[in-house]
Amino acid sequence: MNKKGIAILLFSLFFAFTAFAQGRRALRINEVMVKNDSNYIDDYGQRTAWIELYNSSYGAMEISTMYLTNDPKDPTKYPIPRGDVLTEMQPRQHLVFFADNDPNKGTFHLSFTLTPGKDNWIGIYDTDGKTLIDQVTVPANLKPNCTYALNQDGESAGDAKFDPSFWGIRDGSASKYITPGSNNVIVDKNAKAANFSKNDPAGIIMTLIAMTIVFIALILLSVCFILFGKISTQSAKKRKAEAHGADSTSREVVAGVESDSGEAIAAICFALYQHLNAHDQEENVLTINKVRRIYSPWSSKIYSLRQMPERKF
User: Would the pLDDT of 282 be above 70?
Assistant: First the structure.
């Protein structure tokens, strides 16, 4: 492999590693509930503390062999097991882990619990057990059945430093939904659509905008077809000039070969007619050619038996 190939290979590997690292940093702790008395139920019908993770990237992410922990001194406290198809998080997907200290229940049951009434630190570590991907410190004043959540899903993705300005306490009220396994912000209406409907109840402006877009598209198509035709014509003239052995940039030569005179066309047609004057290839014309045969006494009618014998009286 030459130097250029090696350079391209190294650049590709660096780009792939960078994209992989960026994808890892897109994993976020999105919402946490410490005391669960009347909220989310796990697959065993139990109510326990839970931690929601969020894939803020636009590509799938395999989180198995990563680590979840509540102790910075023990970063590999809970290794996320392999073999579960759900650990391959799809783009913009949420996953809920239950902090019940019972990992034998399955992949999403952690080996530690969260303690109400005190600060709870939670961290995610990469597969090497050393690289901190994300962290959060849940405040001690979090009430039962309330969550500590990001104001926007995946906010400040790519920064493992905890910033409390991105977080807020949710109590389940109309403006502060508790959303395990779903978006933290629920949009129930489109402000722009509502404003448009208010200002244009009859839909006249919408109709005019739609018609304008259609007409503009048709005009652009017409311009494209015209330009394409001109380009094709110029290309044909250039090829014709080159066929005559002339410089395609010479205006006089191009003008001279741009069109043939009527006399030249007539002469060419007559020559072709004389050369290809085969009536059998034309319609409604039958050509009969005389077939010459070599004379033989065996085929002569003189010696045939069909002649009547002469009578002599």
Answer: no
